[in-house]
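Entry 14. Ran structure prediction on the chain below.
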Amino acid sequence: MKAVIYKTFGPPDVLKLVNHPLPQRSAGEVLVKIRSTSVNPVDYKIRRGSIPVISKKEKILGGDLAGVIESADADSQMTKGDRVFGLSPDFIFTSKWGTYAEYATIKSNLLARIPDNTSFDEAASLPLVCLTAMQALESAQVKPGQRVLIHGGSGGVGSVAVQIAKAWGAHVTSTCSSKNMQLVKELGADEVIDYRQQSVDQVFKDNPFDAVVDQIGGATTTQSLAVLKKNGHISFVLNENLNYAKLTAGIALGTLGLGPKYHLGFVKPDGRMMQEVARLLSIGKLKAVIAKTFPLEEAAAAHELLETGHPSGKVVMTVSA
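Output, structure tokens:
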């Protein structure tokens, strides 16, 4: 099969298209012929060696997949020909496998069927970001009617977090740059502010939030905490600006009931949540936001765009027809 790998850490041009052996399916797994995948920040961080615990220097990158089941166990809940999507556990750096390839194996209980109203490209753009958003919102115990602040509403995670929180009945406020304010409003945000022109701790000082999803860190965290209720929740998405000393202190204070509850998690594949993603897609409550689509052969260009171009939405790669 065709696959994109790297053999050494470095810039985007270390990514090479090669002929690679097919993965071998185990019991409980299905073999998926991948039609589309997408690029996430964790991919380029692994590629450039930014995550110090990486042990595999030759790896197929990627975790998002959308495609067609090629083979499955006789008693599998998924059958040959099903259009499916999901997040492969192989996206993490401890596996040499990934989804920048024509085929991948994955446990069938981590997948959902793609709704008829959703293309392969759209489906491939969603698993990691939707699971990240859902796990952050669930950790924050978001309930209908609550006020939720979601930063980076035009980005990969933010654009779906806004839609999911709204679909779950929350009142959603989001931040973004001025050029993306209309997009974020169209995604369902009740209030949108330009973070370059306004500060949330000033705008909402008299109207605090029940929950915050923070994927920015740094000064954004300080501002968010100033407008978070004492009994509120703040969910952090991993980023380079997290202050782990303050995070640890915040977790301790929250546990003692002396401040808001802090949550930090690393996204996990989850079939139950993928079923919810499929449901929201099927009823029109969730849509993919795609910045640009590349063929698999141009993986280096796709990485460069995500790494340096600040795209609004996801960068997708078409794998096979």
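The radius of gyration is 20 Å. Will compare against last week's run tomorrow.
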